[in-house]
Structures are given as structure tokens and as C-alpha cells.
Specification:
By secondary structure, the protein is an alpha/beta fold. It has 11 helices and 8 strands. The longest helix is centred in the last third of the chain and has 23 residues. It is globular, with a radius of gyration of 19 Å. About 10% of the residues have low confidence.
């Protein structure tokens, strides 16, 4: 039976895909088709090309300071991401410049959205790295990508969990990883850190909160307007959740894995170790469902 793996979008939560793939491999499950949207396209390409361990080592080494160096200050046509630095990471840990999708030992496709039509666009042939860039180009963070003579951006806007793509590429059974299962209502409700916990920046923020408390009651604090970034992140989460529910209702996978990642923010890429651990745990929880279907 040819197994397909649909790796969903979810920004920093996508590092959990690494843990899912590792846990499946330890049980002798090696997907022959892998399709990814957004961060799923990046991890999927690393898996298809045999460089997943390299990617894991690099992302697990990230901390807050390292993560910040992948972003730029100020908004321009190029978005907020330091493209040169991120491209160097892709070259080191995913694919060499000029490497082609059709040359990968495992069937692979990335999903992007076409700006002119709003339709999803499947990247099944051509250079690997531009395909990844097109699939991950979330508006505002990344610029759109010109690929196959069309402008493309983040595939999570149209097909967050590419189950349909796996089936089209020949998968007879599809394991889908949905990263959007715990998103709604998460923003503004994170648990407070213990006193003294966190880095220097966290402690400065905690100091301001401490001295600001006498001026605001609990009700006033909760009624304050959400931050601009928090609002944008919440809007993205709502869109991802609604589209994911709709797409999976029409084309359900054979097995669905939903890591518990609601506590990881959109850009908290430095939480890779935590996300990977939850990816593995998610597979463990679903073993009673997975194993009978694969006999």
C-alpha cells in the first residue's frame, strides 16, 4: 500500500512535522508520497531529499536571539524576513540550488496560492527551493514569488492540509498532520511565566507589567485593545482553522494527526525541540488507530 503524508501549514508549529516523521519511521512507516503546504513544504522537501536530520539539528539550535536575526526591522516590498539568511539555511539543510523536484527519490509536491486567480497551485516539477519559497510566502512576512510564469504566495490560504494532492500523486492511504486544531481563542490567553523565568527581554516586559498593575484593574487590562501583530496572527489562525475544517470535511484523510500546539505562537521558531517532542507524542497517542489500518 502506497502511503502519502500530507504536512499542513502552521508556521513555527510546523517543526512538529519532524517529530511525526521520526515516530512513524521508528514503526516502519515510510511514506512514499509527501505533500506539504507552507512550513509543511519545507519539512516535506527535507524528508524527500534525505536531509531531515540536518534540518532538525539547525532548528533545534535556534534560540530567541538567533530567530530574531532571520527578520528585518521595517516593512518593505521584501517583507519582514531576511531572505538571504533563510535561503542559506535552505541550501544547507534542504536542497542545493538548481535541484529539481522530479529528481527527488520520494514523490513530492508543494502547494501555493496563485495571486491572479486565488486558486491553489501544485508545484510538482521544477526547482525545489523556489517551490518552497512560493509555498511559505505568507503575505506581510514574505514577498510573493514568481514561479512558472505566475505570482504565488502561501498555500495555507487555499489548502492548509494537502490531502487531495497526496491522492493525486498516487497515495492509496493518506496520513494528514493538521497543525490548526487548537488555534481559536489562543491569542491573549497564554499562561503567565513564573517570576524570574525567561530571558532578559522577558524580564523587562514583566517589570513594566508589574509597575503598570496599580493603574489598571483586571477588567480594564482584559478590555485593552489587542496588539497589531496579535490581531494579524489571530486573523490568520481563524482563516487556517476554517479552511482546514472545510477541506477535510470534503476530502477526509485515512488517519489524522493533530499535535497539541496551541501554545506555540506564529513566529516562535525557537521552540523547535518542544514542537518536535509533541509531534512524536501525537503519533504515540494515535497508535491504536494507526496500526490496525496499516496491517
Amino acid at each position: 500500500m502506497k502511503i502519502g503524508l500530507a504536512l499542513g501549514s502552521g508556521s513555527a508549529r510546523g517543526w512538529s512535522h519532524i517529530g511525526v516523521i521520526e515516530a512513524l519511521a521508528e514503526r516502519g512507516i515510510h511514506p512514499e508520497v509527501v505533500c506539504g503546504t507552507s512550513i509543511g513544504s519545507l519539512v516535506g522537501a527535507a524528508y524527500a531529499g534525505g536531509s531531515l536530520e540536518c534540518l532538525k539539528e539547525r532548528v533545534c539550535a535556534l534560540n530567541k536571539l538567533h530567530t530574531a536575526t532571520y527578520f528585518t526591522f521595517g516593512v518593505g516590498a521584501g517583507g519582514l524576513v531576511n531572505r538571504d539568511k533563510l535561503d542559506a539555511l535552505f541550501v544547507d539543510c534542504v536542497a542545493a540550488p538548481g535541484a529539481l523536484i522530479e529528481e527527488l527519490p520520494i514523490r513530492y509536491a508543494a502547494v501555493a496560492a496563485e495571486m491572479a486567480t486565488g486558486r491553489e497551485y501544485w508545484l510538482k516539477k521544477g526547482p525545489i527551493l523556489p517551490a518552497i519559497w512560493a509555498s511559505i510566502s505568507l503575505p506581510g512576512l514574505f514577498p510573493p514569488v514568481r514561479y512558472h510564469n505566475r505570482w504565488l504566495f502561501d498555500g495555507g490560504l487555499v489548502n492548509p492540509v494537502p490531502i487531495s494532492v497526496c491522492r493525486a500523486l498516487g497515495a492509496e492511504m493518506v496520513i494528514a498532520v493538521n497543525l490548526n486544531g487548537e488555534l481559536i481563542g489562543r491569542h491573549g490567553t497564554r499562561k503567565k511565566k513564573a517570576e524570574g523565568e525567561g530571558d532578559f527581554v522577558d524580564r523587562i516586559a514583566a517589570t513594566f507589567r508589574h509597575y503598570g498593575t496599580p493603574f489598571f484593574s483586571a477588567e480594564e487590562a482584559s478590555a485593552r485593545q489587542p496588539s497589531m501583530f496579535g490581531t494579524v496572527a489571530c486573523a490568520i489562525d481563524i482563516v487556517q482553522d476554517r479552511i482546514t475544517r472545510s477541506r477535510m470535511a470534503g476530502d477526509p484523510p485515512d488517519i489524522i494527526l493533530t499535535p497539541r500546539l496551541g501554545h506555540i505562537g506564529l513566529l516562535e521558531f525557537y521552540k523547535a525541540t518542544e514542537a518536535i517532542r509533541e509531534g512524536r507524542a501525537c503519533v504515540e497517542r494515535m497508535l491504536p488507530v494507526i496500526e490496525p489500518l496499516l496491517v
